[in-house]
Write a structure and sequence with these properties.
mainly alpha
């Protein structure tokens, strides 16, 4: 970091050769471009920036890292920003999942109620639920009823459950690919 700082003081263009990790270092970046400090404190400017590239959220003033709307804009563009911010409310995560279901990958869904709401958005949300909820027959039935291919994410014992597999196959015949070998061979399925 000291080497990059010294190089950039001599020639600001040298910053482009820094590692990705160092280019994402807010303090170093602001040393290189001190005139941009006010820019990263301005909520409107930060929202414009994160709409183009969500990961620049890390450059924002720390107060803006607590602003749910700024975080939402960044996460819509790149859900991975959720790895770097404090956990968000359940409503926030569900709102974001309506924009990009993969955002649930960065959520810590533990409540059955939140899982049900996520499955209302898409049965494929089953992929992002914890293992114990993937083994909940009622939740899995709801998921495969909405998206038969969600069977791929169900616990193994439920991929061997006739009722679950029949519901999945009724929704999408290709879901049979994810049924247990025994049920795939069963002509009644």
């Amino acid at each position: 970091k000291m080497l990059v700082t010294a190089a950039v003081k001599n020639d600001p263009a040298a910053f482009q050769w820094a590692s990705q990790e160092l280019r994402a270092d807010r303090d170093l970046w602001l040393q290189v471009c001190p005139t941009r400090l006010e820019h990263w404190k301005n909520r409107g400017e930060v929202q414009k920036e994160v709409q183009n590239e969500g990961t620049v959220l890390s450059m924002a003033d720390p107060l803006l890292l607590k602003d749910e709307e700024v975080i939402f804009e960044a996460a819509v563009q790149n859900p991975r920003v959720l790895e770097r911010v404090d956990p968000r409310s359940e409503d926030f995560l569900l709102r974001l999942a309506r924009q990009d279901l993969t955002a649930l990958r960065y959520a810590d869904i533990q409540s059955r109620e939140v899982a049900e709401k996520a499955l209302e958005i898409s049965g494929l949300a089953l992929e992002f639920l914890p293992e114990e909820l993937k083994a909940d027959k009622e939740l899995v039935l709801e998921a495969v009823g909405r998206a038969g291919m969600a069977l791929a994410f169900a616990a193994p014992e439920l991929r061997n459950d006739r009722e679950v597999v029949l519901r999945a196959v009724a929704q999408n015949r290709s879901a049979l690919l994810y049924a247990s070998p025994e049920l795939r061979r069963d002509k009644a399925v």
